[in-house]
What does this fold into?
Amino acid sequence: MKFAKYFLLGIALMLPFSPAAFSQQSFSGKAELAEKVKKEFLHAWNSYRKYAWGHDALKPLSRSFRDWHSESLMMTPVDAFDTMLLMGLKKEAEEAKQLILSGLSFDKDITVQNFEISIRILGGLISAYELDGDKRFLQMAEDLAQRLIKAFNSPTGMPYRMVNLKTGKTSGAESNSAEIGTYIIEYGTLSRLTGKPVYFNTAKKAMAELYKRRSSRGLIGSEINVETGEWLNKESHISGGIDSYYEYLLKAAILFDDKDLKTMWDSSITAINKYLYDEKGGELWYGVSDMNTGERISTTYGALDAFFPAVLSLNGDMEKAEKLQQSGYKMWLLAGIEPEQIDYATMKITSPYYLLRPENIESAYYLYRYTGDYRYITMGEEYLNSIIKYCRTDNGYCALKNVMTGEKMDAMESFFLAETMKYLYLLFAPEETLDFNSYIFNTEAHPVKRNY
Ligand code: DMJ
It folds into this structure.
């Protein structure tokens, strides 16, 4: 048996390189990597359990917790629940489910950030319902949505940034494109599940209002007043502050087979590829330009931009997707772990922290699913190992204040368990774990079914 294994391995090594030969040879490696991710997920989850149970997030260095508001919204368990289901962690999933169902209520006099609560908690509850089937998750999701939807009550239909869960009082008229245009996956799915079109229509209207205010070049800016519709910041890019608006245009066009959203996406990606696309020394990057003139303002790219290869690949543009992912990989390797932002013209780090973000890994996962190229497995393995090397502590995982010095931060964001660990796991796990072509992920990596 042993002889046969080494004989076959020897033959495989003599074959000229081809992804198929390589992936067969390394098959058991993927299973081991998936197990390794699961073990590290448990390490983080058990630390949350021990020091932050019932609270929003773990503070791994001080072995304590952080709540975003005066009362907890159980952000980490809600965000992590579907990852547990996908990993087959039945005991942990059951415990998290009981905690959420018995202890989480939205009848609280607290003012929340509409965007964050929608992508993390509303998205988490909807996926929990779809994957687990317990109707109480759907009831909670609708209760939350009925409170959050009041944020859209502005003169333009673009939502305020903040809304009080009990009183519905809104605040924060000065908002950004991402916080205006990232609701339709959650709201549209809720419309499908409840038969009430109001959710889908409200989210779509906000996107259309934003799109309507694009410049003659077809670009949008990053900050806008939702009462007057006036742009406050005309910098156009694919980075934080705009990113998930584009992500949701494409994903929702696919998910709901919506022609208007498809038109909006098509014209947006044409403008992005004309004015933000930047080739430097054979490498592909996307920079920052003025939305009115189309002229380049800066050559920055960062951890948040690294979602874009996934979006490009979902759009079928594999050439740009693979090329951009190579640039993202280079950025990750600069200091051994991904910095928040670099200047790609000088390859200098302009923002040195690492918040345990998932986007670069998310793109590696999409590219592996689309190409089957084993290079994305080894890329993911490097990402995983560097996160273990730099961010693992005795009590969970922590963000880094500075990737160049390795200085740690006392924070483990819930998206580490919702997204970073989920995408790593799905990258290495067997394809049947989640049929990639049957689901669309919200921007917090919560999967929703494509077809009903
Ligand atoms: C997440 O909350 C979401 O992915 C969002 O779209 C961007 N920021 C974080 C992760 O980096």
